[in-house]
Amino acid sequence: MRYLDSAKNARREETKMSEPITISSLKVFIKKPKIHVVSFGCQMSFADSSEMAQSFLDKGFSSGESLETADAVVISTCTVRQHAEDRAISFIGRLRKWKKQKPHRLLVVAGCAAERLGPKLKERFPHVDLVIGAKSIESFSKIIEDVLSEKFDLASESATDFPQTPISTQGAAACDFVTIMRGCNYSCSYCIVPSVRGREKYRPVQIIIEEVISKIEAGVKEITLLGQTVNSYQSEYQGKTVKFPELLRILDETKGLKRLRFMSPHPYYVTKEMISVFRDCPTVCNYLHLPLQSGSNRILKMMRRNYTRELFMEKILMLKSELPNLVLSTDIIVGFPTETETDFDETLSLIKDFQPAWIYSFKYSPRPGTLSSTENPDDVPSAVKEERLARLNNLAREIGRKALQGKVGQTVEVLEENENFGRTRDGFKVKWKGGDKSVGEVHSVKIVDASDFLLIGEK
Ligand code: SAH
Ligand code: SF4
Questions:
Q1: Coil, strand, or helix at residue 450?
Q2: Which of 202, 210, 215, 425 is the most exposed place for a label (fewest CB within 10 A)?
Q3: What number is the average pLDDT over the span 333-345?
Q4: pLDDT class for 169, splitting at 50, 70, 90?
């Protein structure tokens, strides 16, 4: 059985790609083999999984709704936090039986955890056929092409007989992601991303435009552009350098596009030019997720975030004064090594000044090979992390409640993502009663109530 591992071997594997691959002595013929993708963790991993699924569709597979009917399963993994990796690992373990039931089945593990664990995954789970790390994601299609032609008899089926639209594992046709860059040039001390995804690589503007157009033509209404520091994007196009704000201006022109979002920007690249795009481009939504991580300058320095709390707040104040309707959210890590009560209080006080509408909060988890995990013991006790997380979340909930209550009585524009559920342009989740169910449509919904993190509406 052939074994593809990741990073270090990616180059070596590329040169080996044209060699014959023996997966099994038996080549199976299945009329319409089915591919099922499962993604764990971040949006990046979800977006990658759509691309991976597309590679199978292009080769003549059809989309499988469930594990039971699937002939091939791709698991797109994330390793940013231990929890995301653990969930993927436990899922892989559970597929042992699935594979045994029909040995022709193909199990591919891809993405960031695959990159980090490499050959160890195969040693622990011999039922895994292929491990394709995040750094080899661009060669994914070529790699599986070789494997599929060995394992499945697809020759008598024409690839064009099959749907060409990407599979969405969330089933939400209204909204989709487009990856515009991969990797990261920063080196935040807690973060495993640079080591599993490598340095920044930008997708060409033309490819991004085409991908956005093809998704819109397939019925998508809202696109979220993805990158680890998405607003550091730049690429040559038609003889000039297109930076992130310019890319937004170009995409804003796409016919049929209703909403454009992006994730996650880095505070360093929040500039006046970027702000002016929010004003000028009707599709760019008035919502910004701007990760802070900590409010303590001492911790920010240890995290190597390249800004102070003062600099971060300066950006926030600029955003709020230039764009009064902008809704903001953020990421916070609690319990970073050596974090004291005083440090944590600084985070709470900054959150009070900042007033994000909601936050994503995480307990620090040491990731193998990162600077913080090698330089510092994970010395904040788990119970302290829990307690700080609860205090932070309570504060964030209180702030969020005010933002949500402020919407009660208003009529808002909601894009329906699932039946009677969607989001406002500024990112609030809305559930409503009444009206026709029409996923993908924009509705005017009267907000009558609000619970934690959710607006309740009527049509
Ligand atoms: N590129 C983005 C974030 C990517 S990871 C940025 O620069 O902000 C998503 C979030 O996971 C981070 O914002 C951080 O809050 C959290 N995170 C990353 N590594 C972590 C770790 N080791 N422990 C806990 N949370 C972590
Ligand atoms: Fe990780 Fe920092 Fe890069 Fe974000 S900016 S992906 S947190 S290294």
A1: strand
A2: 210
A3: 98
A4: very low
Q: Global pTM?
A: 0.88
Map tokens 């907000």 to a residue. 447
Residue 327 and residue 417 share a domain:
no
Determine the residue type at 189.
Answer: S
Which residue range(s) make up the domain with 347?
291-403
Any bridge partners for residue 198, and if so which? none
- Whether residue 170 has pLDDT greater than 80: no
Q: 44-103 pLDDT, tens per residue?
A: 888 999 889 999 998 888 888 899 999 999 999 999 999 999 999 999 999 999 999 988
Residues 434, 301, single domain; the answer is no
pLDDT of residue 391: 98
Provide the number of structural domains found in the chain. Answer: 4
Residue 157 within any structural domain of the chain: no
Atom of ligand 1 nearest to the CA of 228: 1
User: Ligand 1 center to residue 150 CA distance, Å?
Assistant: 39
Q: Which two tokens stand for residue 352?
A: 């009070």
For residue 227, the ligand closest to its alpha carbon is 1
Q: Are residues 215 and 338 located together in one domain of the fold?
A: no
Output the DSSP codes for 183-231. Answer: S-S---TT--HHHHH-S-EEPPHHHHHHHHHHHHHTT--EEEEE-TTGG
CA 224, distance to chain mean position in Å, is 10
Neighbour tally for 243: CB within 10 Å: 17
Closest-CA residue, ligand 2 atom 5, reads 186
Q: Whose CA is nearest to atom 1 of ligand 1?
A: 228
Overall size of the chain counted in residues: 459
* pLDDT tens track for 187-244: 999 999 999 999 999 999 999 999 999 999 999 999 999 999 999 999 999 999 999 9
Classify residue 193: in a domain, yes or no: yes
Question: Is 74 among the domain residues?
Answer: yes
> Distance between CA 265 and CA 226 in Å, rounded?
9
Could you tell me the pLDDT band of residue 124, with boundaries at 50, 70 and 90? very high
Let me know: does 1 contact 131? Beta carbons within 8 Å. Answer: no
**Is the same domain home to 184 and 312?**
no
Residue 158 above 80 pLDDT? no
Cα of 344 from ligand 1 centre, angstroms:
17
Q: Are residues 312 and 425 in the same domain?
A: no
Do 242 and 354 reside in the same domain of the chain?
A: no
- Ligand 2 site residues, Cβ closer than 6 angstroms: 184, 186-188, 191, 193-194, 228-229, 266
Measured in angstroms, how far is the CA atom of residue 216 from the centroid of ligand 1?
Answer: 30
Q: Cα of 208 to ligand 1 centre, how many Å? A: 25
Domain end call among 260, 285, 310: 285
Same-domain status, 297 and 274: no
